[in-house]
Every structure is written in C-alpha cells, then in structure tokens.
Amino acid sequence: MALYGLLGFAAGLPFYMFSTVLALRLQAHQVPLAVIGFFAWVQLLPTLKFVWAPLLDRYVVPGFARFFGKRRGWIMLAQLGIISAMVAMAATASDASLPLTALFAVLLAFWTTTLEVAADAWRIELYPTQDEQGPIVAANLWGYRSAMVAAGSGALILADWGGWTIAYLAIAVAAFLPFPILSMMRPEAEGGGGRAAALVTGTAAAAGILLATAAATALIGSALLASASAIGIDAKANVTPWVLALCMAPFLAMAAALPKIRRAPADAPIRASAAIGPYVDFFWRYGFAALVLMAFVSLYRMGDVLALNLSKPMIKELGYSLTQIGRADSFVALVSSVVGVGLAGWLVTRWPMMWTLALGAMVAAVGNLGFVWLAHQRVDETMLYLATGADQFGNGFAGAVFVVYLSLLVNPRYPGAQYAFLTGFAFLLPRLLAGAGGTMVNAIGYDGFFLLSGVLSLAAIVFLPALARIRARDA
C-alpha cells in the first residue's frame, strides 16, 4: 500500500509539469493561447500507451530484470527517463525554442506513461478482485493526487521565487524517490545475481535506451511539425473540425473490424498475436457492446481533461498570482482530492458500480462549473479556494471510481496491455479536444468552454443503464 502510494506520487509529479505547469510557463513567456492549447497534445502520449504496452508484458529490461523482475525493471527504467527529461526541461526553461520544449515534454510524458503501465500491470496481477482493487487504487491515487498538488503548488511557488529552472529541478528530485527504495527491495527470485551488478548493468542499458528513444522522438517530432506546417496548422488556424474528424476514426475502425473478430477461433492469428492479441481479446469478449464501453470511457473524464490545461491560465488572467494559485493548489487541493479519492475507494466496496459512476460524473461536473462561478467573483483567495476544492474533490472521486471500473473490464491474462488500451482510449478524445481548447476559448470564451466541460461530464450518465447489462463473453 505504501509503495503504491509512492509510485502514484512519482507518476503524478511529472504529469503536472508537462500539463498545467507547462501551460503557465508558456503563458509567462507570451506564447499565444492557441499554441498553449496545442501543447495539450503532449498529453496524448498516455492515451497511446497501448502502442508500446505489449512490450512491457513481453520483454524485460536488460540488467534490472534479472534481479528485480520484469515489472520493477520497467518501473526503474521509467524513473531514469523521467528524471533525465525533467532536467532537460529545466535546462531549457526559457522556452527560446518551442520545438525543443515540446521534445523534452514529450519524452517526460512518454516515460511517465511507461511508469504507469508497468505499475498498473503489477497492481492488477497482485490484486485481481473488486474488493482488493478499491483500497490499492485509493492508495495509488492518494499518492498521485498528492503529487499533482505538490507539483502544482510547490512548482508555482518556487517559480515565483526562483524561476522555472529551480522549480523543474526540485520536482525532478522528488519524482525520483521510488528508485532507491525499489533498488533496496528483495530480489524477484533466487539466483538472480547480485544487486550491485544488476544496478550497474541496468543503468548502462537504460542510458542506451534513453538516448535511442530521444533520437527517435526528435525525428518523429520533426516530421509531424513539418506536416502540420504544410497543411496550415498554426496559431491562427481553426483545428476543431480536424480534431472531431480524427475522433470519429477509431470508432469507425472498431465497428468495421468487429464482425471478423467475433468469428475468430481461439487459434486465429489475430487472437494469438503477441502484438494485437490482447486488444483483439477485449473486442472478442464484449462484441458490439465494446463500442458502447469505448464511447462511455471516452466521455466519462472529458470535462476534467478539458478543464485541466486552461483552468490555470484563466485564473491567472483573472488577476491571481502564481503564488496565490500555488497556495490554492496546496493544502486545499490536497485535502479535497484525498477526501474524494478515499470516499470513492470506500464506496466501490459497498455500492453497485453504476451508482458510484453516476455520483462521480455529478461531482466532476460541479467541479468544472465552479470555474464559471469563479470567473464572476471578485479576486479573492477564498473564492479561489472554494473553486479549487470543488474541482479537486470531483476529480479525485471520479478518477478513483473510473480506475476500479476499468480494472474490472480487463482479462487477467493481459493486465498491462488491456488496461493500457482502456485508459489510453479513455483519454484519446478528451485530449484531442483539449489541444483545440485555445481556439475554442477564442471562439466561445472561458464561460462557454467550462460550461461545455461540465455538461459533457454529466452526459456520461446516459450510458449507465446500458453498461449495467453488459457481460463479457466466456473464453
């Protein structure tokens, strides 16, 4: 329980640094709001984790794995990736080159996501039932939410005091805390070799993997930026129609493939494949009900994701300082989030899942609508505390319920890959739309934007009667 609280803390710290804190940092350097919105697309990396999640189920990290095991080996590699990317973001804190800022933000997002994939797979293997999942998810999310509060408040106060470089370096050190603890744990199995040898060889292998990943990311990023420029995507472009078209593509592809998947026997190549077999299994078990499930998971956290990237720039524009925002994101946000997560972790062990999902959607909507209320109040930290508390309580409650629900949908044969797929798809549509958030605010204003986010959170309730009747096909 304590370890999963710490792993949640280590994953939550960097997430805030490539999302909300980065948005405020770009705003401080006079980057246009539409471009700040584009940086929300860095958060697409967690939604695409199903692309490389099977690698974590199939392969081990050289050096680390022989002593610490497969799951811990990947977690330790991800920790090294996180601290190296965070140090690079600290070194380029002036944002003189936005492509360079984007590169290091993407690397930070990639390694943070890899840490989550490995930790989630380990969690599902260790705690497979609903009663067991509630407490361990609560512990993990307490750590995660505490970290987001620590990053949000601590980084902003440090940035106000000593600059963005100091803020990123301090958070980097805190995010690395699990590594020495994991390195001191007992071996995965007898005969795994010495601890010191595993650490030395594992760190050497990690250095090569980190450099190769950075080089590949730079090449892919350059190609994507060139393509975007060629089709006219810039700070003045209306990207919303493009985003909506992209959002429809996954649903159309799934609907077209389902008939063939449902007829596939157990030894069919698409079901036996190490690369796509775990994902085909999900659609084979749920059939056309999978489309309902995917639509629901795409919508459930929509409001919170839309609000995440632009809520702090809006608050800054209202006249609040970085230090005031940081204070609101400290004790108030921490207590609200911890209470929300804890209440959800307790309720899922006692209430039917559909009731807790409905309550989560409602409190999340209240949190988003609180920003509309805040925009029409005088500049007063008490008002900011009320809005922040409502947002963090709703976010924590809905997030905990959602994690338990998704964990129960996976096949225990493929815990890492299927959970990565579900959580990735759950945030694909919201984060695609979040990237267009800056252009949406330019068109409908902050009031319209946060009203929309609140209504979208409530819309998920419409799916609950259908979800209650869905049962997985027995393999």
Automatic annotation (TrEMBL):
<feature type="transmembrane region" description="Helical">
    <location>
        <begin position="448"/>
        <end position="468"/>
    </location>
</feature>
<feature type="transmembrane region" description="Helical">
    <location>
        <begin position="393"/>
        <end position="410"/>
    </location>
</feature>
<feature type="transmembrane region" description="Helical">
    <location>
        <begin position="330"/>
        <end position="348"/>
    </location>
</feature>
<keyword id="KW-0813">Transport</keyword>
<dbReference type="InterPro" id="IPR004752">
    <property type="entry name" value="AmpG_permease/AT-1"/>
</dbReference>
<keyword id="KW-0472">Membrane</keyword>
<feature type="transmembrane region" description="Helical">
    <location>
        <begin position="197"/>
        <end position="230"/>
    </location>
</feature>
<feature type="transmembrane region" description="Helical">
    <location>
        <begin position="417"/>
        <end position="436"/>
    </location>
</feature>
<feature type="transmembrane region" description="Helical">
    <location>
        <begin position="282"/>
        <end position="300"/>
    </location>
</feature>
<feature type="transmembrane region" description="Helical">
    <location>
        <begin position="33"/>
        <end position="52"/>
    </location>
</feature>
<feature type="transmembrane region" description="Helical">
    <location>
        <begin position="142"/>
        <end position="159"/>
    </location>
</feature>
<protein>
    <submittedName>
        <fullName>AmpG family muropeptide MFS transporter</fullName>
    </submittedName>
</protein>
<feature type="transmembrane region" description="Helical">
    <location>
        <begin position="355"/>
        <end position="373"/>
    </location>
</feature>
<keyword id="KW-1133">Transmembrane helix</keyword>
<keyword id="KW-0812">Transmembrane</keyword>
<feature type="transmembrane region" description="Helical">
    <location>
        <begin position="73"/>
        <end position="94"/>
    </location>
</feature>
<dbReference type="InterPro" id="IPR036259">
    <property type="entry name" value="MFS_trans_sf"/>
</dbReference>
<feature type="transmembrane region" description="Helical">
    <location>
        <begin position="242"/>
        <end position="261"/>
    </location>
</feature>
<feature type="transmembrane region" description="Helical">
    <location>
        <begin position="165"/>
        <end position="185"/>
    </location>
</feature>
<feature type="transmembrane region" description="Helical">
    <location>
        <begin position="100"/>
        <end position="122"/>
    </location>
</feature>
